[in-house]
């Protein structure tokens, strides 16, 4: 057996039994709470979570349509998908490093030598020559110490992290569409309440003016009624501005121009009703659902693999090199057996005098891994905090909503009684004025509380990692 074949066999054998230097990645052990500290109220339960199309629990066809359109055209989601495709392409480039690299070349050179630079010019010596050359060169790194394998592990983890970040963007887009839609419906309710109060307060002005003209009351009652009416009318432009701006934001979220949904959402509709039950699952299940937690774990895996990539630089690298082709000074004999040339054999490179720089890079990679671990642990704690905050907000706002509903009913009865007494001349108009203002304020707070409860439910779904699994499959198939 010749030497070249023996070296090749030795290299292949070393590759088959070689080890990857650096630490192997092991998922961090995270201690999750046994249960949520916030009491499960307002329909929230520990039942297993089902997040496929969670927005459909709100039973609003318009919201369903907006979600569909946002998933297809939202710009942030399109950017995230492009980044995912980019990460996939970069990972493919790392895979290609395991294959031999082959380069082809061809050249022609016309060379003229200086006569005056020659010490002797014979009769047969040519000062002008031509050189024709065509060939290839190839190289193949034998990954004995696992540098390429660690690079592939790092690329796989980076790709997985980008994929989870795309899911996080998807969850944010879904939540933003739902939240803005709920805000639109809530603002429409507040605009409608304000308009109804303007009509009622305008009637109060007419009543006080008629009583003043009849000499049954003072002009002060008329002015007080007019002040309340003007104050209520002044709030209308502010509410309508907020409503249109929210519709503009919703239009941009579905990838359209700001005014695209003004006609579609012009008709007033109620805020979507709450589902009877909201399963939140257990804290231990949260870490498997939250894409930001999974992305942080993949970042940790990539940083761990990078330690191996840097450690491999301490060891020699082995290559199989080869080149061949045709070279001649005459075009007529270019592709002929006599013009052939070739060379092949193993080679080794070793950064022997660069160990100080390599060890510094290893220390930097190790520090990066420690930072990635801390980032992962922080992401986990923050995920638990998001859910706890969302639960307490969702539960307590429902308590507030019920109290406001009782207050509205009480204020309506009080206003009816105060108005009746005033029109009969048995009561002061100040009582009517106070109860009118109180009723308007509480009705407005009730409408805003209804919006807030549903928005808090959306925030809870987002904190729990609710997304769209069908969309995930569609992107992965691209």
Task: Give a verbal description of the structure.
With 478 residues, this protein is α+β, with helices and mostly antiparallel strands. The chain contains 10 helices and 6 strands; from the N terminus they run αβααββααβααββααα. Helix 4 runs antiparallel to helix 5 (219-253), helix 4 (147-213) runs antiparallel to helix 7 (291-311) and helix 8 packs antiparallel against helix 9 (429-463). The model is unreliable at 470-478 (pLDDT under 50).
The structure class reads alpha+beta
N/C terminus separation: 50 Å
Order of helices and strands: HEHHEEHHEHHEEHHH
How much of the sequence lies in strands comes to: 5-15%
Query: Unreliable runs, pLDDT <50, ≥5 residues?
Result: 470-478
Would you state the CATH class of the largest domain? Answer: Mainly Alpha
Radius of gyration: 38 Å
Number of domains: 2
Mean pLDDT comes to 86
| Tally of DSSP β-strands | 6
The major β-sheet equals:
4 strands, antiparallel
Gross geometry: elongated
Instruction: Tell me the CATH architecture of the largest domain.
Output: Up-down Bundle
What are the main properties of this structure?
478 residues; alpha+beta; Outer membrane efflux proteins (OEP); 2 domains; 4-stranded antiparallel β-sheet; 10 helices; 6 strands; disordered C terminus
Summarize the structure.
This protein has 2 domains: 21-96 and 145-315 and 356-476, Outer membrane efflux proteins (OEP), CATH 1.20.1600.10; 102-112 and 128-142 and 316-349, Outer membrane efflux proteins (OEP) (Single Sheet).
């Amino acid at each position: 057996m010749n030497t070249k074949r023996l070296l090749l066999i030795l290299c292949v054998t070393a590759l088959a039994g070689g080890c990857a230097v650096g630490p192997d990645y092991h998922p961090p052990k995270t201690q999750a709470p046994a249960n949520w500290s916030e009491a499960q109220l307002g329909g929230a339960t520990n039942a297993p979570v089902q997040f496929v199309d969670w927005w459909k629990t709100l039973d609003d066809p318009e919201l369903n349509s907006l979600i569909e359109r946002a998933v297809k055209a939202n710009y942030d989601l399109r950017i995230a998908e492009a980044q995912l495709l980019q990460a996939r392409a970069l990972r493919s480039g790392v895979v290609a490093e395991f294959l031999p690299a082959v380069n082809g070349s061809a050249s022609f050179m016309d060379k003229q030598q200086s006569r005056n630079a020659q010490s002797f010019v014979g009769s047969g010596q040519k000062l002008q020559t031509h050189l024709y050359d065509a060939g290839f060169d190839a190289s193949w790194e034998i990954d004995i110490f696992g540098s390429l394998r660690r690079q592939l592990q790092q690329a796989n983890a980076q790709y997985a992290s980008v994929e989870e970040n795309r899911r996080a963007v998807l969850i944010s887009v879904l939540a933003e569409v739902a939240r803005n839609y709920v805000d639109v419906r809530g603002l429409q309710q507040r605009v409608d309440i304000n308009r109804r109060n303007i009509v009622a307060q305008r009637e109060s002005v007419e009543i006080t003016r008629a009583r003043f003209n009849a000499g049954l009351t003072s002009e002060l009652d008329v002015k007080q009624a007019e002040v309340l009416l003007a104050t209520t009318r002044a709030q209308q432009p502010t509410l309508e501005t907020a409503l249109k701006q929210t519709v503009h934001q919703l239009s941009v979220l579905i990838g359209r121009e700001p005014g695209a949904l003004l006609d579609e959402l012009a008709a007033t509709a109620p805020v979507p009703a709450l589902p009877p039950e909201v399963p939140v699952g257990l804290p231990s299940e949260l870490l498997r659902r939250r894409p930001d937690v999974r992305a942080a774990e993949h970042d940790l895996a990539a940083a761990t693999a990078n330690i191996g990539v840097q450690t491999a630089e301490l060891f020699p690298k082995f290559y199989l090199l080869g080149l061949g082709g045709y070279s001649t000074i005459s075009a007529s004999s270019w592709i002929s057996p006599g013009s052939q040339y070739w060379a092949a054999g193993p080679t080794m490179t070793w950064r022997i005098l660069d160990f100080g720089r390599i060890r510094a890079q290893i220390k930097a990679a190790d520090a990066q891994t420690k930072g990635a671990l801390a980032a992962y642990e922080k992401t986990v704690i923050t995920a638990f905090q998001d859910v706890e905050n969302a639960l307490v907000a969702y539960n307590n706002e429902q308590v507030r909503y019920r109290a406001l509903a009782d207050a509205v009913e009480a204020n309506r009865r009080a206003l009816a009684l105060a108005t009746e007494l005033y029109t009969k001349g048995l009561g002061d108009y100040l009582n009517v004025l106070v109860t009118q203002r109180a009723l308007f304020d509480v009705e407005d707070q009730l409408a805003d509380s209804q919006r807030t409860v549903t928005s808090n439910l959306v925030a809870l779904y987002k904190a729990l990692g609710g997304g769209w699994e069908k969309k995930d499959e569609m992107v992965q198939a691209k």
